[in-house]
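Bug: token stream looks shifted between consecutive jobs. Job 1:
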Amino acid sequence: FEHLGPEHAVILLMDEEGELQQAAARPEEDESSPISTTLVHEVVEKGQAALAVDVTSDDRFAGAKSIIASGARSLLAAPLLDSEGCVGMITLSSSLTKKIFTEEDMELLASLASVAALRIRNVSLAQSAAERDWLQREVGLARRVQESLLPKKLPELEGFEIDASNIPSRGVSGDFYQVMERGEGDDREIISIVVDVSGKGMAASLLSVGLDTAISVLIEAGIEDAHQILGEANNLLYRKTPPDKFATAVLTILKPATGQVQWVNAGHNPPLLIRASGEVTELEATGFPLAMVPDGDYSAKEFTLEPGDLLAIFTDGIVEAENPEDEEFQLDRMVEAMMMAVHGDIGGIRESLETELERFVEGVPYRDDRTLVLLRRSPA
């Protein structure tokens, strides 16, 4: 306005969908600013400034009724253009009695628009960086909340070893595990649960926190059988979640006095029961994933954990980890990695698996969360 003296001016900026939206105008709330598809085509799509000394005699704008109706006669426009592309446009207009724009005016506006475009792009990048920083802080806070819900200390019981880990692939995890004690003396039980919520990221992590809380409440409420706990959790999750959300889970109840283990597998990767003899048994699914069907039927099964036997419950982020050749780690490599350290302490078994997994992927990012719970009865 100071250098070019228009009556009206408007700045349009591209939104996230690539549509032009009014960002500023003078006079403010100016509804008479001459913006038309013809002008947008001339300036934004062609990426060049446009000058009309008199729009009524300019063939380019002969069909631009919105410009003619606005009362504008002399028109000047320039794209907000930088090396990355067009971020919008600026248009100046005036009646012929007020101002007639010239070629020199167009050159000046084009220069101002170029400087403005660079500034707008830099501000946008700064805003994006600030938003990313904010999101990273939120993800970090969410992860700390998740970690606070994981067991701070695993139960200690004579004659048994327990180890567990949860490693997210995207800052927060859609997996979770719990290892809880219940009862005393010969009635003492160790209850473990491993869950893998469908999807990844924040949405999966929020659902996992809710499911973790619900299952913990059901366990603490004294529901005795594994299939009843998962049955109640299934009904709750089915009522509270969208149809496309579900979770797989394995729940085990160990009675240390006898070594008896009751287990239920709700559509989860089969846990591995590795006997002291080296025999490996997969604990296949005994019911549908949680929240997939109402009133799901989850049958429980049992085995006895003998001295030297190892139970490994895990999520598919481990066996589906890929190397640069797109090969998956798979179950055989997992068993082999654990067997390499099976005669050491239980923490060494987990470390051996992690070492072999890192060697296998060769730096390829993990696409899914990795959760592992190990339970071993000490050798006789």
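Job 2, same session, no restart:
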Amino acid sequence: CWFFEQNLPNPEQWLLFFEVEARIPLSPERLKQVLQILSSHHDALRTRFVCEAGKWRQFIVAPDQDVPFINMDLSTLPQVQQDAIMQTTAIQSQHNIDLAQGPVVQTIHFDLGTKRPNRLLFIIHHLVGDVYSLQVLASDFQTAYHQLMQGQVAKLASKTTSYKAWAEK
């Protein structure tokens, strides 16, 4: 309520950015699978906000098979050009966040070749994530990715209390 009472001119731009350097080469297909698993497991990643008759309403949509994910192969470019493209892409991708229609999170994989670690950039709206929840997402991401990499079925820890159940109480 506090957030919407501020009547910000661009409420979609209240974002957290979280970048991770990968110690191993990452598979875009596996990344997309993991993001789908995270979206299904964490209700907040599917939260939407709409203003109806002057009042904001929050709801959670069903998991979507098409998670917001961009894969950028920059492996053949010089480092200066890679850095410039990563910065431009991060700035442009902010505008993909949409509180009403989604997504409220955007993930970008930058393949920088064999001489530099791959990077993953997570852009998440602050209404659905904070520093603590980013740590939980990072841990779940790592767990699921390693399980899939080893040919296992991804199994995350059970939810303690879903966001929906917490909000209803």
